[in-house]
Write a structure and sequence with these properties.
CATH topology: Glutaredoxin
Number of helices: 4
CATH superfamily: Glutaredoxin
Number of strands: 4
Largest sheet: 4 strands, mixed
CATH architecture: 3-Layer(aba) Sandwich
Radius of gyration: 17 Å
Strand content: 15-25%
Order of helices and strands: EHEHEEHH
Shape: elongated
Distance between the termini: 18 Å
Strand order of the largest sheet: 2-1-3-4
Length: 101
């Protein structure tokens, strides 16, 4: 799994909460910043950082390694984390028949 997972979120956003819940359920460690809870100075600095990843500056903005995901998209998030990739289990089972995995 990817080591660096960062979420820029809003404390009141249902999509942001769903993203955090998904990562927790998948036992992924992540850092998050609830932008709406920051002081004005901190918020302005963070918003500039977010715009470098997501010019629309919408939430959640999720950074997984070098991949940026905007909004809650479970399939995209899991794919970026290397979780539940379609066919992955099948290929591992097939390889284990020929190699000791």
């Amino acid at each position: 799994m990817t080591e660096n997972v960062k979420i820029y979120s809003l404390s009141t956003c249902s999509h942001c909460k769903a993203t955090k819940r998904l990562l927790s359920q998948c036992e992924v460690k992540y850092e998050f910043t609830d932008v709406d809870l920051l002081s004005t100075e901190e918020r302005n600095a963070i918003l500039e950082d977010i715009r470098s990843y997501n010019p629309e500056c919408s939430f959640p903005t999720i950074i997984i390694g070098s991949k940026v995901i905007v909004g809650y998209n479970e399939a995209e998030i899991k794919k970026a984390l290397g979780l539940n990739v379609p066919g992955q289990g099948f290929f591992k089972r097939m390889l284990s028949k020929f190699f000791s995995l």
